[in-house]
Amino acid sequence: MSTSLLLLLIVVIGFIAYFAGRTRSLALSGGKLSNLHSLPGYHGSYVAIWAMLPAALVLGAWLIAAPVYIDGSTRATLPDAVQSQGPAAVQLALGQVKSVAGGLLRLSGEELAALESGSANLRATLASKGVALAGEGDPYMVTVAKHFNAMTATNRWLMTAAVLLIAVAGGVYAIRNIAARFRARNQVERVILGSLIVASSIAILTTVGIVASMLSEAGRFFTMVSPFEFFFGTVWDPRFAAAGSGGASGQFGLIPLLAGTLYIAFVAMLFAVPIGLFAAIYMAEYASPRLRSTAKPLLEVLAGIPTIVYGFFALVTVGPFLRDISAQLNGLVTGDYQNFIQAQSVLTAGIVMGIMLIPFVSSLSDDIITQVPRALRDGSLGLGATRSETVKKVILPAALPGIVGALLLTASRAVGETMIVVLAAGVAARMQINPFEPMTTVTVKIVNQLTGDLEFTSPQTLVAFALGITLFVITLGLNIYALYIVRKYREQYE
Fold this sequence. Notes:
Layout: H1 3-29, H2 40-76, H3 80-83, H4 87-104, H5 109-117, H6 122-127, H7 140-177, H8 184-224, H9 227-232, E1 236-237, E2 251-252, H10 255-286, H11 289-300, H12 307-334, H13 346-370, H14 374-382, H15 387-415, H16 419-424, H17 442-449, H18 459-491
Antiparallel strand pairs: 1-2
């Protein structure tokens, strides 16, 4: 039985167990729910948990352990001549055996008999069934593959029987525990609490694993390249070398990439903050409820557009427009129709990224402005201030810490952008202050360093992890500071 079908059967047993537990609790109540400690739904959930959770845990453990055992048993049946060649040869032979095992399931009895007798070619026979082998195949592979298939089939039947038996036994055990004063609610809530803890732990451990993997690989990079050279170098020239060529390590200066990252993010924020903040003020203070309910969702649609689409927009529309308009302006002033804004430039990337960030700024700022107590507005208007004076001198100062936090969160989003920069600002790692010229960012170079024919132990590849941990620290710092400011702002009115 397949794993998906087995999971479906566990869920069906769980549903049956739920209604059985609920029915039993109603029967024990004598028609009065007050006689029960917990509601019937809790009793049903308790029985369903006992029917599904142990079975699911056993299924998961079985799926992890069984392949390891089957592979070990299959390795033991390989000929001594293969096992004496070392782990790499054994692993290669095991992979071929698994391919043969899959192909044997597609053969008829006559074809299988022909393979066993040696009258048919193994590779050609399996190729006719759509199974490709890396080599011609050896006669022993058929025998070992049959052993593998037999163990796999036995494992499937044992797993199905064990899991279904545990599911039924768990449901029966839980039903026998149900009584009028049984604390089913406490048991169910304990399981839910454990599930929440497990989910939180998975999120935390995932973050720890990501950081640990980046730190370990970055540590290997810094054994090859000086940290001082990386963090304070002003030249980015990794000198890509083909795998196994032993090429030079090059220069890995972070400063040009960090300058491009901060410069493009700064231009994007210059474009996004005024528009987004003014839009938030209008939506929160001036727009009618009908207009707000229509315009705000339309504005937030921008946040759902894939960044690659913004990149195409920059490459096809914004970049050529800025290039052509700069040529026209230059021609009107000097008579030389040479453009002074490149199609791929900091300005192009900043404008398009700013458009992408507008809904982040407006939505976050709008939520913060609407959280300002109504009493402050009414007090200001009652003292004779106009609505614009109230916004400028009362609402914005009160909401300023939260708005600053929202802007910092938006800035961290801008720092981590990749696709818009690739298409709108290019990949040139350079230090300059002219916004009309191309630059690149840390994220773009991370992608570049991890693509291509490079050894994974070379500094040209490992530098991507050093760049990643640097970017992680920058965005983490921005997020922590932003959350601190937002939390401090909320405490003022709680």
